[in-house]
Write a structure and sequence with these properties.
The structure is a single chain. The chain has a six-stranded mixed sheet, with no helix packed on it. With about 160 residues, the protein is an alpha+beta fold. The longest helix has 18 residues. It has a domain of about 80 residues. The chain has one helix and six strands, in the order αββββββ.
Length: about 160
């Protein structure tokens, strides 16, 4: 084989590789897809307020501060802070209050309540004790069975 043929065989692949990238490519123009926007859903009208009658032995404060409303329900404050200690009751949205058991007696402010004594469970729900008895006074909260409501607010100071 002549030197010329060998050179051609070695140079040809290098030239093809170099020139292979210089091929003209046609670019197709496409129309972008249209953007589809839907209006935001209209908010549903709130359910009419439910009139709740507390048990006869329990009095509810007359002020508007006796309830804290959430989309999934509301906290309702009962008791007068004197004869009956304040306590919160969770009322799910769209339901009415059936008489809840009377709250357990509030522990003395100086006593420390163990975690095992902070919950009293009933078929209809449970009483949960909040507070530490020091900086935050003890107060009971009624939570219906099957509910996980937001944390209850602090009750007003008895006065």
């Amino acid at each position: 084989m002549s030197m010329r043929v060998v050179r051609a065989m070695l140079i040809a692949p290098a030239l093809l590789a170099t020139l292979g990238g210089c091929v003209y490519r046609s670019v197709e123009k496409t129309t972008p897809s249209p953007v589809v926007m839907t209006p935001a859903p209209m908010p549903q009208p709130a359910a009419p307020p439910v009139v709740v009658a507390p048990p006869a032995t329990v009095t509810a404060p007359a002020s508007a501060a006796d309830r804290v409303v959430y989309p999934q329900g509301r906290w309702q404050l009962f008791g007068d802070g004197r004869g009956t200690p304040y306590y919160w009751v969770w009322i799910p949205a769209g339901s009415t209050l059936t008489t809840a058991p009377v709250p357990p007696t509030r522990p003395a402010a100086t006593s420390v309540v163990p975690q095992s004594d902070r919950t009293y469970t009933f078929t209809e729900g449970r009483w949960q004790l909040y507070g530490d008895g020091g900086a935050t006074p003890y107060y009971w909260v009624w939570i219906p069975a099957g509910m996980t409501p937001p944390a209850p607010p602090m009750p007003p100071q008895a006065g």
